[in-house]
C-alpha cells in the first residue's frame, strides 16, 4: 500500500474509535480501505486526512460515513438451502426447549430477522421465542424495526422463501402499498432490536441459537475469534451457531469447541 | 517474451478473466506441473448457471490443487484459488484471503479490480497480474494499480483473446510489461516460477 494511505487509514480508524467508540481497528483491511476510498468521493475529500478532520468535528458527517463503512447487503431467506437445513435439522431439536432465545448478530436492515421469524411461526415456535437482533448501525436497526422493504426485492425473496421450504404464500406476511411491502408487525412482537458491537461489547444473555451471517467476513482473524468467543459464551450447552455460506470456524481457535451439524450449510453446535 | 533476464522475482500470481475465460484458463493453467510453487489467485466471471461446476471442471483438468477460496484462508504455495461466485475476493496484509459483499463493480462480483488492487497492496513489486479475455472493462484499473506499485503486468493479446474487449480496455489505460498470446503467457508463468523458487 502507498505509505501515506496506510498511515492515514490507520489514523482515521483510530480517530473514529477515540471519538465515537466504533471500533473498526480489526476489520479486514482490503474491504475497509475500499469503503474509505469510496467515501472520499462521496464526501468530496481529496485525502483520508481531510475526511478524518471532517468526521472528527461533525457527528452528522460521521453518521453518514458509518453508512458507507457498514455494508447493509442482505436479503430474506438468502441461500434458501441454509434455511431449509435449519427447518429440517435444527427446528426438531429446538422444539425440545420450553422457551428459546435466538441472537441474530449483525442483523443489518432486518432481512434475516424476518426470515427467521417467519420460519419459526410456521414451525409453531415463534410464540415461545425471544429474538435479540443486534447491529452497530442505528439507521439499519431503525429500518429493521420498520420492516418495510421494496416490492422489487420482495419478489426475489418470494422465490427464496419457496425454495427454503416455505409453507404458505409469502404475501400472507406483508401488505403491499406504493411499491413497498410492509411486514406483519406481529412477527416482531418478541423481537428486541438493540445496539451491540461484536468488537467492543460483551455477552448479554444465554441463547439456544445464534445466527451471524456475512458479518464475520469483514473481520480479521483476531476479531473473528473475539466474536466466536462471545458466541461460545452465550450459547447454552449444545446450542446452535449458524454462519454465512462462505464463512467457516475452521481457521479459528474455537474450531475444536464446535461440531458441524450440517457442514455444507455452516450450521454448528457447541460441543 | 521480452527477455527472461528482465523478469522480477514474484511471490504470487493473480489472474482475471471473463467471457471466454474458462477455455483460456484451461489453456493457461493445464500445462503447469505438480510442484509449481507460486500461488495463483483467479477471478473468473461466470454466468449464474455455470457457477457450481467451476472448481470441479478445473480440478479434473489441472495438475495443481484447485480450491474455491474460503474466507480467512492462508495463501499457500502451488495452489490455485478461484474466487467464490457472488463474493468479492481480496488479499489481506497477513497473506490470507477475504471475501466481501460490497456492490458489484462493472456488474461483477467477484471483481477483478478488487482482487488486483488488494493483492498489489500486499505484494507490491512481488506480484504478477495477468488479464485475459472478456467482454467488459473489469481489471483495467486493477492492472494499472499493480503497475503503480511496481508489479509485473501481462495482458492477453486482444487478437488472441476470444473476446477482446477486456484486454483492449486495459491497454487503453496503461502499457503492460507484456502483451502475449495465451501460450506465451503460460511460458512466462513457468519462467517466473523458475526464477522465484
TrEMBL record, chain A:
Stored InterPro entries: Bact_Chemotaxis_MeTrfase, CheR_C, CheR_MeTrfase, CheR_N
Domain CheR-type methyltransferase: 1-249
PROSITE patterns associated with the record: CHER (PS50123)
Gene Ontology molecular functions: S-adenosylmethionine-dependent methyltransferase activity
Pfam families reported in the protein's UniProt record: CheR, CheR_N
PANTHER family for this protein: CHEMOTAXIS PROTEIN, CHEMOTAXIS PROTEIN METHYLTRANSFERASE
Protein name, UniProt field: Protein-glutamate O-methyltransferase CheR
Species annotation: Pseudomonas koreensis
